[in-house]
Amino acid sequence: MIALKGITKRFGEHTVLDGIDLSLERGEIIVVIGPSGTGKSTLLRCVNFLERPDAGQLTVGDLSVDAARATSDDILGLRRRTAFVFQNYALFAHKTALENIAERMIVVEGLSKAEAHARAREILERIGLADKADAYPAALSGGQQQRIGIGRAMAAKAEVILFDEPTSALDPEWVEEVLALMKQLAAEQQTMIVVTHEMQFAREVADQVVFMDGGRIVEQAPPSELFTHPRDERTRSFLRKVLAGNAPSDA
Amino acid sequence: MQALNLDYMVGLVPVLLGYLPLTLGMAAAGMVCALMLSCLLAVVRVSRLPVLDQAAQLFISFFRGTPLLVQLFLFYYGLPQFLSFLVSINGVTATIMGLTLHFSAYMAESIRAAITGIDRSQTEAAQSIGMTNAQTMRRIILPQATRVATPTLMNYFIDMIKSTSLAFTLGVTELMGATQKEAASSFLYFEAFLVVAVIYWIIVEALSWCQKRLEKRLNRAYQR
Ligand SMILES: Nc1ncnc2c1ncn2[C@@H]1O[C@H](COP(=O)(O)OP(=O)(O)O)[C@@H](O)[C@H]1O
Ligand SMILES: [Mg+2]
């Protein structure tokens, strides 16, 4: 189980997250939507302390951490129970696809290189990139890089995978293959929090959709409800804008 | 103008090559020690460790700010005056020490620049999979920084090989010292120094060739 309570984050004077509460059951998928600059990335980054929250309580699996008093062991513990998929993939540039996926198993789990590589190969099979095992990131397309990024997250067997706009940096031609992989994970009951502008994906896959604005959760509901009967005017206006831009895929 | 004494020059080559192992040995030892020290200095500087960072800055400033020859004299002739255990320091050891300290100051700055130039997302990706700061540095940042810094470090190595010639001022008979002696006994100064110049030149060219091959290898991961 994942629970966030009262997560607050300021950058100087600017309060970017203003007391966020959110919880997920195992296997649940939450999609977070909202205007840019509203704190969605910061929220995900706070869950694994890529940003340090100023206040709040974080629970991931059996670990519960008071953000204001988090020790370095707490932070490492949270990071080892979560996995992150970055907008710009952030693959290790000097490592092959296989090594990118195996890295965590070697360094964090202490598996032998042979064992880690064998398991990484299984993951490459699952993400359909077995033939790219020895390719370096620079030689892969954006879509392939992001699938490796997701494979690296899968290798963590994390309580939750955090996706920060995983398709936003991709050329349109690669978006579908990445979304397809995420749907595959959803079908395997992987717990995830996904920040995205892909409304069709949210409709199909999310258990809950969260609309954020100005550092707060404005509205949270299952997609069938949030997309058809948004309660708050800010949600309505955001959806009007986004869906107008997305018209073809929603037709 | 009289003609070059070619026979003398050809005969001198094998004599001087006998001193090549000492020259290359001093450079290799200096380079290995300088690499270790400069990595340490760079990591101290990048992590901004209090006190140690200031100490590293002072060290770097001094060894970059004074001539290598002055530093060598300071170690070889100056220090034993105060540190009695150094009385027995020989010219070779003093040279290796001087090269190490002098070049590590320069190399630390290149390594530091290479480290800080690695994209922040690499660190975040490593942290996100639960790597500690030390693991991140060792497995992700330093290998990538190595690639960036290698061409510069190779240039320092080349420079270091040439700088070993200063050891002759501490009475070490290495390549340069041997040439000096040979020239003084034959009076064929031009011939002798021309031969040694060409020997240094060939070594440096050979190294430049290795440098290009090494860079190609290191860039393998970055080819599209
Ligand atoms: N490291 C930072 N320092 C200062 N301000 C930041 C930093 N990161 C994000 N911000 C600010 O926080 C706000 C929320 O950013 P972000 O979480 O990236 O929004 P979103 O992902 O919803 O677009 C923005 O105003 C952004 O400028
Ligand atoms: Mg964002």
UniProtKB/TrEMBL annotation, chain A:
This is Amino acid ABC transporter ATP-binding protein. It is a peripheral membrane protein. It is found in: Cell inner membrane. PROSITE patterns: ABC_TRANSPORTER_1, ABC_TRANSPORTER_2. Keywords: Amino-acid transport, ATP-binding, Nucleotide-binding, Transport. It comes from the Bacteria. It comes from Kushneria konosiri. CDD domains: ABC_HisP_GlnQ. Residues 2-239 form the ABC transporter domain. One of its GO terms (molecular function) is ATP hydrolysis activity. Belongs to the ABC transporter superfamily. One of its GO terms (cellular component) is plasma membrane. InterPro entries: AAA+_ATPase, ABC_ATPase_HisP-typ, ABC_transporter-like_ATP-bd, ABC_transporter-like_CS, MetN_ABC_transporter-like, P-loop_NTPase.
